[in-house]
Amino acid sequence: MRGRLESGIAELDSMLGGGLIDRSLYALVLDNMVGGRVLCREILYNHTLRGGKVAYYVLESSPEDVVESLSFYGRRIEDRIEKGLWKFISIEYPALRDVYIDFPQPRCRSLVVDGLDILAKDIVSNVRDGGWCFLEFSFLANRYELDELVKFLLYVKRGVRAYGGVCFIELAGKLVDSRRIDLASHLADCVFEIRGEETELEPRGVLLVRKFGEKPESIKVIPFTIRDTGVVVHTLQRVA
User: Fold this and answer.
1) How many domains does the chain have?
2) What is the predicted pLDDT for the residue at 199?
3) Looking at residue 147, which CATH number applies to its domain?
4) pTM of structure
């Protein structure tokens, strides 16, 4: 039986029954990109506080975006980057070659991805090295055929299962084809859908736990607020 891993957010761990499920592939379906990324980045940041490693794959954002976002909430990762606990990998897709040549990404290693096999093996290599992985996958998910996506997701899933830790695959709910989201949700061990709530006060969101391992459960609806000090999870859970 797979164990549990602390997210570093005590209220979230409690509502998940003890934390994240170890050795798992997570599909993150984000309706609210900013709120969803803030929550996930805080989980990754907390992992580095315990001496853990993070491999963060960027395509649609940049390392500066991530560093700046975390700094808004008092989370500074410059020292973790220097120590090798947090590393960025810039995904370079051939059709966007001019972008990478004219505007190279600092603070990161480049990975030319002309096929998902290269990306899958790189991710599993970082997982084997003890890293928790985060992948901005929306653009690539729309570029490849379904059978290629199946092979990619299964390879990463089995790599995480073999070596431990977690891998988050980010999918923008409004941008990615519904068949691809359904496929990722089917193959992933866990599915988190994150939605934003409009408010004039603090940014709010809800985390819908649509799938959490193999145990059949009702959908958990976990509300959270983004404050100056970071993410605050509210313990009054709703069940859909």
Assistant:
1) 1
2) 65
3) 3.40.50.300
4) 0.94
